[in-house]
């Protein structure tokens, strides 16, 4: 059976025409209203007797669900409760999250989603999204055809190999696409029925998963090499055949594979990697805002990045691109950045420099006189002592690596040190804001990957921005959908960064990024900037600003119950699969 949607205008609610009824309508989360089904719809759709007789409104439902939520004793229990609510009533789920955004967003995404991925097989309740196991690589078209809804705007896919800072979680990595797409809807207004989470199950090298009798993924060591890339390619080609025009977001692939896959497919379909480009965009915005607070420019900065994976190189790359765009020569722009991997500073004499790192590998000759450690590497403390960085960014997944000694050394030479410990989840942060404030006598400008509370210091309160991709990728997705972009360009992410930084400028006296409560306004503005950039890049048809704004409004879904009308003569109570048109 089909759903037909008429979008509400001039204050009217959406009208959804459906041939479903009875239990099957109640089991369709995106259109189930629960006890809020009015009496006429209960009669029309065969719901009489299936629900308690009292008809509630969504306000009463919100009170009841929040009351129940509040009794859950732990963050994981609250996460499970919210996911269960999403699986039975998506309108109520998103309305509840919007009503309590700052409290609940950390529970459906970072930091709680990390634990949810680690325990995925033990807390699994209901199917959501698609699993594509390697042994079924010849049947990917058929698997994609089994999706719940026909028309999809955004797909988020992971292979589960590098989940946050937790490493290989195998099939448990499905929690990330589910969580990301929840934020696409919550923050950017993408209709939940037009999103699709996917897990490419290429096995796992995590012994805890392989030895867990309850592990739900393919029980096999992770495939690699040509077999792996052929598997991913089969999936991408199937997406191109069955979902033409969809936005495909790669998420939490390994350091080595992430950049390779982005380079391979970025000019083949509408795609991006959020770990590389989304992380870079939000970090650039936070840096631009920090520069306003310090009264300096990006060209004045000396930036040390602890971590040299795809996220770190993405951050350095977009910051360097910003410098080049404002007139700094490429050779000078890249010299503002020092990247360290697990062994130490990345330089052209260290060996093992990966292709995507070469742009930022330092000249070994420039390190004459530096003190190497016993293994011949230049560690973070030596780099900080020699470089005297103005900004220190952590994307290493190594908790506590920004030590008191290192931070105090940095702060000796900089009036307003910028320190961003961005590793997720909270347990992986390179330092806590409280320590950073103490070690810098309150002078630090800090932003973190996971949420931290404000820090009281000598009679004032220092705010801590969550430098999280959720500020950027929902707006990017909304802009792509609104203008039907054929590709995602670097200029679109640079436009997103500039717009987010501009929005932050309108919130003076606070942290470097806007409050999360403004996230839908942020996403709307980023969508417009991304749409204009897509048009300018020639990857979308030309639109006037008024038409662009109208398309963004049309694409933004709001969690309100639609009016239901029967499709055809009567509601079908069978279990035929629903399809959204």
Write a structural description.
- With 581 residues, the protein is of the alpha/beta class.
- It is globular.
- Strand 1 (2-6) and strand 2 (15-18) form a beta hairpin.
- It has helices at 22-26, 39-44, 58-70, 75-88, 90-99, 101-108, 112-118, 120-123, 140-145, 175-188, 207-210, 225-242, 255-265, 274-294, 310-325, 330-333, 380-387, 404-413, 433-439, 473-483, 490-505, 519-536, 545-555; strands at 2-6, 15-18, 130-133, 154-158, 195-201, 247-250, 271-273, 303-306, 337-340, 391-394, 418-421, 445-448, 455-457, 460-462, 465-466, 563-566, 579-580.
- Helix 10 (175-188) crosses helix 20 and helix 14 packs parallel to helix 21.
Spatial ordering of strands, largest sheet: 9-8-10-11-12-15
Q: How would you describe the oligomerization state of the chains in this entry? A: single chain
Mean pLDDT, to the nearest integer, reads: 93
Q: Share of helix among residues?
A: 40-55%
Shape: globular
Radius of gyration (Å): 24 Å
Class based on secondary structure composition and strand pairing:
alpha/beta
- Poorly predicted residue ranges: 573-581
- Summarize the biggest pleated sheet: 6 strands, parallel
The count of helical stretches stands at 23
Q: Report how far the terminal alpha carbons are from each other.
A: 11 Å
State the total count of DSSP E strands: 17
Beta-strand percent range? 5-15%
């Amino acid at each position: 059976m089909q759903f037909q949607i008429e979008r509400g205008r001039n204050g009217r609610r959406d009208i959804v025409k459906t041939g479903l009824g009875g239990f099957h309508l109640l089991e369709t989360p995106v259109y189930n209203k629960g006890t809020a089904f009015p009496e006429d719809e209960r009669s029309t759709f065969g719901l009489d007797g299936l629900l308690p007789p009292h008809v509630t409104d969504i306000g009463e439902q919100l009170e009841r669900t929040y009351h129940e939520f509040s009794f859950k004793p732990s963050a994981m229990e609250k996460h499970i409760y919210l996911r269960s609510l999403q699986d039975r009533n998506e309108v109520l789920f998103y309305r509840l999250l919007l009503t309590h955004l700052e409290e609940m967003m950390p529970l459906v995404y970072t930091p709680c989603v990390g634990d949810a991925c680690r325990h995925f097989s033990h807390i699994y309740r209901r199917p959501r999204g698609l699993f594509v196991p390697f042994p079924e690589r010849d049947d990917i078209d058929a698997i994609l055809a089994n999706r719940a809804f026909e028309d999809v705007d955004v797909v988020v896919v992971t292979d589960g190999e590098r989940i946050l800072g937790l490493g290989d979680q195998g099939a448990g990595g499905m929690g990330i696409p589910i969580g990301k797409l929840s934020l696409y809807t919550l923050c950017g207004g993408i209709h939940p029925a037009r999103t699709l989470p996917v897990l490419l199950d290429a096995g796992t090298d995590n012994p805890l998963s392989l030895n867990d009798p309850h592990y739900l993924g393919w029980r096999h060591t992770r495939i690699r090499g040509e077999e792996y890339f052929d598997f991913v390619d089969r999936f991408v080609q199937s997406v191109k055949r069955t979902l033409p025009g969809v936005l495909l977001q790669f998420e939490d692939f390994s350091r080595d594979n992430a950049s390779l896959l982005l380079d391979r497919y970025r000019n083949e379909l509408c795609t991006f990697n959020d770990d590389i480009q989304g992380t870079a965009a939000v970090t650039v915005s936070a840096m631009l805002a920090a520069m306003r607070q310090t009264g300096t420019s990006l060209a004045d900065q000396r930036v040390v990045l602890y971590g040299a994976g795809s996220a770190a190189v993405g951050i350095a790359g977009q910051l360097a691109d910003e410098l080049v765009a404002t007139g700094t020569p490429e050779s000078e722009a890249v010299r503002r950045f020092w990247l360290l991997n697990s062994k130490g500073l990345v330089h052209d004499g260290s060996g093992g420099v990966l292709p995507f790192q070469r742009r930022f590998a330092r000249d070994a000759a420039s390190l004459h006189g530096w003190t190497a450690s016993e293994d011949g590497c230049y560690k973070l403390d030596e780099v900080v002592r020699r470089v005297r960085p103005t900004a220190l960014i952590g994307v290493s997944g190594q908790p506590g690596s920004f030590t008191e000694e290192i931070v105090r050394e940095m702060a000796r030479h900089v009036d307003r040190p910028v320190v961003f410990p961005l590793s997720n989840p909270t347990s992986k942060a390179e330092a806590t804001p409280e320590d950073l404030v103490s070690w810098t006598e309150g002078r630090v400008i800090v932003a973190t990957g996971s949420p931290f509370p404000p820090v009281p210091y000598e009679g004032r309160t220092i705010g801590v921005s969550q430098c999280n991709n959720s500020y950027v990728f929902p707006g990017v997705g909304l802009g792509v959908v609104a203008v039907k972009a054929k590709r995602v360009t670097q200029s679109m992410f640079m436009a997103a960064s500039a717009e987010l930084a501009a929005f932050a400028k309108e919130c003076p006296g606070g942290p470097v990024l806007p409050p999360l409560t403004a996230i839908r306004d942020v996403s709307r503005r980023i969508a417009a900037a991304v749409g204009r950039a897509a048009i300018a890049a020639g990857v979308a048809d030309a639109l006037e600003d008024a038409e662009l704004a109208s398309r963004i409004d049309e694409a933004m879904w709001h969690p309100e119950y639609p009016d239901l009308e029967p499709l055809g003569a009567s509601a079908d109570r069978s279990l035929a699969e629903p399809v959204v048109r």
